[in-house]
User: Fold these one by one.
Assistant:
Number 1:
Amino acid sequence: MELQGYWVHVTPPGEVTQYHHHKPSLFSGVYYVDKPKDSGDLVFIDVNPYHAFSPRVLPGTTDPITRQEYNFPADDGTMLIFPGWLPHKVARNNSDRRRISISFNTI
Ligand SMILES: [Fe+2]
């Protein structure tokens, strides 16, 4: 595995990041340098095709069995690593401070 690139996010209050992926990265990750409370979690979407046909799955549900989005709360110093193809977004920064993180891709 080799580092393909990295970048710094400085996310001001009120900002969100829409769903995206990091193809063709093998694994991608984020390291939280400064993650104020309520400044937006990383959110992954369940890409299991079964959910597209399940009558039990309702948009916006938080039921642990049927929900389609998974939030990963993090604190300063947390690193999350995930498959580069996995769609994700970052929830709105609802704090009054900027969130600072470093993201990276690998090949
Ligand atoms: Fe990303």
Note: Residues 50-53 form the longest helix (4 residues).
Number 2:
Amino acid sequence: MTLSFRRWLNAWSASVALVAAVTGAAKLLAGPTAVPGLSVLYLLAVLPVAVVWGVRFAIAVSVASTLAFDFFVLPPVYSLQLTDREEGFSLAVFLITAAVVSGLAARSRRDAQESAQLGREQGALRRVATLVARGAPPAELFAAVAAELGPLLGADATGIARFEADGTATVVARLGHRNDAMAVGTRVMPEQVGAFGAALARGQSVRVDDYGPVPGHFAAVVRAEGVRASVACPIAVGDGLWGLMIVGSRRGPLPAATEQRMAGFAELLGIYAESRGRLMASRARVVAAADDARRRIERDLHDGAQQELIALTFQLKAALAAVPAEYHELGVELNSLADGMSGLQDELQRIARGIHPAVLAKGGLEPALNVLARRAPMPIELNVAVEERLPERVELAVYYVVSEMLTNAAKHAQASVVQVAVEVHDGRLHLSVCDDGVGGADPARGSGLVGVKDRIEALDGVTSVQSPLGAGTAVKVELPLEPVL
Ligand SMILES: Nc1ncnc2c1ncn2[C@@H]1O[C@H](COP(=O)(O)OP(=O)(O)OP(=O)(O)O)[C@@H](O)[C@H]1O
Ligand SMILES: [Mg+2]
């Protein structure tokens, strides 16, 4: 049984019951000398019908009321015959009054519904705007928008997708789906996006009222979801297209105002994507500038100070060889000076490596982390399950984090072993550094942990530090290989 049929049946049952009840009451009140003015009692039946089911039902009930009043109450009873023109006139006045009153009642009900809907819409927009202003993480914002759109638009399924540079689209949020064909993270291929994408790129929303005859992969996926109709709306950033929002209905076409209602949310998402994109780009620039500076310093140290020091050490050794045997003490002095200079060379090399490790640029993560592990004063169990080279900023960030964590473990943890694991799956890098030391790490007490968090956030990643007292310290980092927004 469809919903509208049920509604229709309810309306008729209620109308018949109301007209019968009012007729009974009118008959009791009227006695044998009923007056046509009593028909006004039927407004008690017409009004509730007008408010709940609308004006068309109310007019039908008005006509039924007039007939029931004439037939059952007005003498001669059980006949539709009218005794005089006055009676006919009274019933006509009742009909007109009932029609006008039901029109007004239905309209005020519509107004009340519209203002309630507007209130709900504004509430939802306000909640989303608060998340945008707070700079909430993308996943949280997208999920919130998908959750708001469903109940607000009477949609059964909602989704948000982001267009990628290669013409594909990635599903970033969805709700109310029955299967996993369009799970979050799914890449939708350009040919699947099809004409949909082209219309959205022109800034137009796309409405499909019946997926039945629509060809193509996307329509097939939608049909498999049981969705019959949808409205998709572009999310624009400046003049470009960032993504799309789509709502679907399993019952039939969505109301005409759906596009307009979605537009406010699309605008907020556009503002969010634009400002977050700018923020991420500027953070990435800050990190890249710092990395450039470190690279420059490392080169200057290597090519300048280090080379000079090597040359000086050679000269010193040459001078040492020339010292006559009787100047034994001078020889000893010069010898210790040469040793000091060799030590300084090592120290300089160590500093240069810490600033910007050449081995990382040359060999990638595994050899660079091996160097860090060898240098550490405690045993390190290193497990790097990454064979390919990763983007430079990602490799640098991992190196930076591991270096800081191993230094921390050596300085503060009294650990007997530190486990370092790096792996990549689903386009994200996962790093963990866990020691079995004293725990109690607190970012507020230094700048190392805060620096790690800032650096990872600049790459749109997340850091978690768990360090219960006496139970070791685990630092976990997760970051996308490609920037997300
Ligand atoms: N692995 C660890 N085990 C135990 N305590 C730790 C560990 N790592 C950090 N801590 C504690 O947390 C504090 C903050 O660490 P953080 O790295 O931010 O600063 P720091 O190492 O003291 O100084 P720096 O700014 O040079 O890194 C440390 O001072 C230390 O008390
Ligand atoms: Mg530290």
Note: The mean pLDDT is 88.
